[in-house]
Structures are given as C-alpha cells and as structure tokens.
C-alpha cells in the first residue's frame, strides 16, 4: 500500500461546529504532516508529527487541534473555525530519514 | 512562510514543446524537491536534488541546481496534455522534514 488516504473529501461546516479530518497511511512512515493550501497558493506547513509526537507547530491557532493516535493515523480536530480557514487541507507522510513526502488527495473545507 | 519564488507563474505551451520552470530560494538548503499538483488534488513528488548535485534526470524531467545563485530549474521535454498541472519547488533546509514551497508555476499544455 503506497498511498495516503484522507477523509472526508469535502466538508462544509458552520463556525460553531466541531468536525475532524482524518488521514491514514500504511507505508510504515513515522513522520506525518498537515498542510493548509489556499486557492492558487502553495501548501503551508501546519504541524509535523514524528514517532506520534508533535514536533513542529507552525504557530497554528488553537481552533486547529492535531492528534496522532497511532503511527498510521493522523487527525485534525476543528472547532470554532472562521470563513478564512476555508482551504484544501493536505496530509502527508514520510519515512524518517528520507526527505520525500507522500501526499493524500486533501480535504476541501468550506466554513460558512 | 514562502521560501522563494517561481517563474513564470503561468506557462502555456503546445504539446511536444519543452517547458522550463525556475525556482529561487533564500536560505541554504539540504535538498530541493519538485512536486506536481493536478487541479485541487494532492501533490506528487517528481524529483529530489541534493545541495551537492548540479543536475539530475528522471524520464522527461531534467532538474538543475545552482546553489551559488540559490536557484533551480525544471525542464519537461516533449510535453503532453497530461502534463497540465501546477508545479512547485520545495526546499528542505535541514533534512528535518520541514518543506517550504515556492509559489508554483501553472503549466497548461494544449493538445
């Protein structure tokens, strides 16, 4: 299995909702990432998990809460989001010690 | 934050022509990678070039790296309509899993 899967593909939520994005990989990768990508812009790193521990938080607002329950699974919990948080959220993984990252197809989020 | 710029921002060519995209960056790097993104989808890794390498090939792709000018170029030869996508360079300063992406080049290849 050489892919990263993300669910849901699309999500519409109100500013008072709580929702979660899910990312899964079965390549044995020990580093996993969340990126945010606005239209016609490059991906921007949000969080990095290494061996299931949060190693990098790029000053992301607390309304985004990452979680890594095990080495194959990465969640992003969303609460009280703003319309400007609407974007494509990409998950990626990589083998520790290797630089290439493998990306999932993304979750397109719309906050109303 | 964005590491650098890509040039051009958009490129339209005919099938069979070559496409060249340039990337500039600001800091010292461990490696530079190129990724491709089809509209609204995930990124696909194309090629990685390390800071001690000057040129690398993979199929129809040729990447160069000039660390003195802090720049890289991606050449796609004999382009196909299926090459239509956005292409991003990404730099890794420390081989520490932090990629910083350039602004991207949107390539359209007309059949």
What letter string, H or E per element, gives the SSE order of chain A?
EEEEEEEEEEE
Most residues in contact, chain pair and counts: A-B, 27 and 24 residues
Helices of chain A, by number, come to: 0
Radius of gyration of chain B: 13 Å
**Overall morphology of chain A:** globular
Segments of chain A where pLDDT lies below 50 for 5+ residues? none
Mean pLDDT of chain B: 92
> In percent terms, what proportion of residues of chain A is strand?
over 45%
Q: State the distance separating the first and last CA atoms of chain A.
A: 36 Å
- Quickly count the helices of chain B: 0
Beta fraction of chain B? over 45%
Average pLDDT rating of chain A: 93
Query: Separation of termini of chain B?
Result: 36 Å
Instruction: Categorize the overall geometry of chain B.
Output: globular
Derived structural class of chain B: mainly beta
Report on this model:
The complex is a heterodimer of chains A (112) and B (111). Chain A is mostly beta strands and 112 residues long. Helices cover 0% and strands 57% of the residues of chain A. Chain A is globular and about 40 Å long. In chain A, 35% of the residues are buried. The mean pLDDT of chain A is 93. The model of chain B has no long low-confidence stretch (mean pLDDT 92). In chain B, 37% of the residues are buried. The interface between A and B is medium-sized, with 27 and 24 residues.
